[in-house]
């Protein structure tokens, strides 16, 4: 049944909100019409209505109620801006629930105002930034691999079913198909051709990411983002191919993962780096990187160039900065372009839009699983004696919990590499949309205390996310900050967390994520990392430095940077204070010796359920401390060898063929 459209009064209130958060402002010198444009002129209210009607019914009703209240208390288009802002502040003070709803609508409308484009037109605010938007054309219109089209009620039979197609699942599918096993891969997301990708920030969030983009943890402390498309996170991440540190390999070997500190695992790392074409020939330095390196070198900090999984023959730095929106050029060597293509060539079959619901158990061991297709009305059964769970550290534990297996540690020990950010504004246009998103990093403080520390890295250029994440100090202050976006450089600090959160199940069987940055060392490293970013920006010549913390005045050159940082240290980390982001989720079904504190044994197989293997970053015994893709891929290759040894020889079908039957 189609959702009920907003009423005329609700639409009027939504338009008023768009023009309150992004108002048309008089400005004598406004050559690009930046200040004269408004949220409604950019179409933010219209796109917001379509977005809101896609929400679950209960959330829709909450938004409708809030819009109704705002209309009844007098929020209307003709009201002066100062009165509209005062009305919103007053209602937020009176009602915490309304405050949350108003903030969410503000972030949504800001993102839409600065990111939405009409067909054939650029966003009206982009002229101020000197930004043309994603412009690549000529991408491949053919999808990379064939996938199965199934009717509900069918049953597939195979030797191994792999749930998830990213850094873990994609590698294991490729490796096991090479050994002659019949492999079926289930992916909750969809496959897209190169030509469908890389053109829109908003489209990417809705189609390529878990739950439609940045999603808050249950208590509001961390914004999570995770890939959900064929190829998983490898299709949308920022391509930073960092080898697992030697200290990490020794740590995990001491925890029982035999061979992690040996040449054998080094061979696994080399093999995946080679297969995905990791190289440093496609790591051009953008102005953002140059400012980061200038500041770091002035302070004597250690830096290094990044390796990226890019095909040099298709790489173009003009378009490499949009990689988080999907790669239209075809240069990115994700698992879709490599291991999954290898697997399909050997007879493996892929089902997209398939969400694994529960594991089938017969005689005390795995027998397959049940998944839903499309919108969830139809089911698919896959029967296989070996199951590989690689649907990410948020969904792998949820599948185990729905199935009632895995032991007491399922969902626990969630590590997130919590990130914070600061933005520096410089004198000159940085053209920070040009060049690879991550081509270098600062690792001076990677293991600053007890093996825990942080990295300093660059972030992808965005307009919508940048606008939504910026600290809110009122419409005029926000517009002034956005006016300088062309001159801005944003750096992130990525913390290796010792503390941890947990994934549990909600009432509908969905993953619920809880995480608070409470470990004393993690808090110290987070704030130390923030200070390092500030010093790097200052040393590189920033005129002003903005934090993301609400109500904090930006630092300006000539003022005390230490006083600015002291003020930031007094703010809480998480909800209501320092915003925290995570693109790396790990550890929720970790490997180890003890079934009380780990889910899988040191090979990757569940302690108490033979035939179920953990094949993604859920298996990490602790946080990797670096971008986890290569560590995950190499660990998956190691796990794949154990699975191949465990797979009954009589099930091997050398051609890779599989059978399907109607249930």
TrEMBL record:
Domain Glucose-methanol-choline oxidoreductase N-terminal, first and last residues per copy: 392-406
InterPro entries assigned to the protein according to its UniProt record, in alphabetical order: FAD/NAD-bd_sf (IPR036188), GMC_OxRdtase_N (IPR000172), GMC_OxRtase_C (IPR007867)
Protein name, per record: Choline dehydrogenase
Single GO cellular component term: membrane
Similarity section: Belongs to the GMC oxidoreductase family.
Pfam entry (one): GMC_oxred_C
SUPFAM superfamilies named in the record: FAD/NAD(P)-binding domain (SSF51905)
Superkingdom of this protein's organism: Bacteria
GO terms for MF: flavin adenine dinucleotide binding; long-chain-alcohol oxidase activity
Keyword annotations from UniProtKB, A to Z: FAD, Flavoprotein, Oxidoreductase
Keyword hit for Cell inner membrane: no
Keyword Flavoprotein: yes
């Amino acid at each position: 049944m189609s959702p009920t459209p907003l009423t005329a009064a609700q639409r009027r209130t939504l338009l008023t909100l768009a023009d309150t958060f992004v108002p048309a402002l008089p400005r004598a010198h406004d050559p690009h019409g930046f200040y004269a444009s408004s949220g409604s002129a950019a179409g933010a209210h219209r796109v917001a209505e379509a977005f809101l009607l896609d929400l679950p019914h209960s959330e829709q009703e909450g938004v409708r109620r809030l819009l109704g209240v705002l209309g009844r208390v007098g929020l209307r288009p003709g009201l002066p801006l100062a009165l509209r802002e005062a009305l919103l502040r007053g209602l937020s003070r009176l009602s915490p629930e309304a405050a949350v709803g108003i903030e969410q609508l503000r972030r949504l409308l800001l993102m839409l105002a600065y990111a939405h484009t009409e067909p054939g037109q650029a966003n009206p605010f982009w002229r101020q930034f000197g930004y043309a938007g994603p412009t690549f054309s000529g991408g491949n219109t053919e999808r990379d691999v064939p996938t199965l089209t199934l009717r509900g009620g069918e049953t597939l039979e195979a030797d191994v079913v792999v749930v998830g197609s990213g850094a873990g699942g994609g590698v294991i599918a490729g490796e096991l198909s090479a050994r002659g096993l019949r492999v079926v891969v289930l992916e909750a997301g969809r496959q897209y051709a190169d030509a469908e990708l890389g053109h829109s920030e908003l489209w990417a969030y809705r189609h390529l990411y878990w739950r439609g983009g940045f999603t808050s943890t249950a208590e509001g402390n961390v914004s999570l983002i995770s890939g959900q498309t064929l190829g998983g996170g490898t299709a949308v991440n920022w391509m930073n191919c960092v080898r697992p540190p030697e200290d990490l390999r020794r740590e995990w070997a001491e925890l029982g993962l035999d061979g992690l500190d040996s040449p054998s695992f080094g061979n696994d790392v080399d093999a995946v780096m080679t297969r995905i074409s990791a190289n440093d020939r496609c790591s051009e330095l953008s102005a953002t990187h140059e400012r980061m390196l200038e500041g770091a070198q002035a302070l004597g900090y250690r830096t290094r160039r990044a390796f990226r999984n890019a095909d040099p023959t298709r790489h173009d730095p003009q378009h490499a900065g949009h990689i988080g929106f999907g790669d239209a050029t075809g240069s990115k060597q994700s698992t879709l372009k490599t291991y999954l293509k290898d697997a399909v060539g050997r007879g493996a079959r892929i089902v997209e839009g398939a969400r694994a619901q529960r594991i089938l158990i017969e005689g005390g061991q795995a027998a397959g699983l049940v998944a839903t297709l499309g919108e969830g009305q139809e089911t698919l059964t896959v029967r296989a004696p070996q199951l590989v769970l690689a649907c990410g550290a948020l969904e792998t534990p949820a599948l185990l919990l729905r199935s009632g297996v895995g032991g007491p540690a399922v969902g626990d020990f969630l590590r997130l590499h919590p990130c914070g950010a600061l933005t520096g504004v410089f004198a000159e246009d940085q053209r920070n949309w040009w060049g690879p998103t991550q081509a270098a990093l600062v690792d001076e403080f990677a293991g600053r205390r007890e093996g825990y520390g942080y990295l300093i890295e660059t972030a992808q250029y965005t307009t919508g996310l940048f606008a939504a994440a910026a600290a809110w100090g009122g419409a005029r202050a926000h517009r002034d900050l956005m006016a300088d976006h062309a001159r801005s450089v944003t750096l992130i600090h990525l913390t290796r967390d010792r503390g941890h959160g947990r994934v549990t199940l909600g009432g509908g069987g969905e993953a619920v994520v809880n995480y608070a940055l409470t470990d004393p060392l993690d808090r110290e490293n987070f704030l130390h990392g923030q200070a390092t970013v500030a010093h790097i920006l200052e040393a590189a010549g920033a005129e002003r430095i903005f934090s993301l913390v609400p109500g904090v005045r930006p630092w300006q050159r000539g003022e005390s940077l230490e006083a600015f940082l002291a003020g930031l240290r007094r703010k809480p980390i998480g909800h209501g204070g320092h915003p925290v982001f995570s693109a790396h989720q790990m550890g929720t079904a970790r490997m180890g010796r003890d079934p009380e504190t780990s889910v899988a044994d040191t090979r990757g197989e569940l302690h108490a359920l033979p035939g179920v293997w953990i094949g993604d970053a859920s298996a990490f015994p602790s946080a990797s401390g670096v971008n986890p893709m290569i560590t995950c891929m190499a660990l998956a290759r190691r796990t794949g060898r154990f699975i191949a040894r465990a797979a009954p020889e009589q099930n091997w079908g050398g051609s890779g063929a599989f059978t399907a039957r109607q249930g």
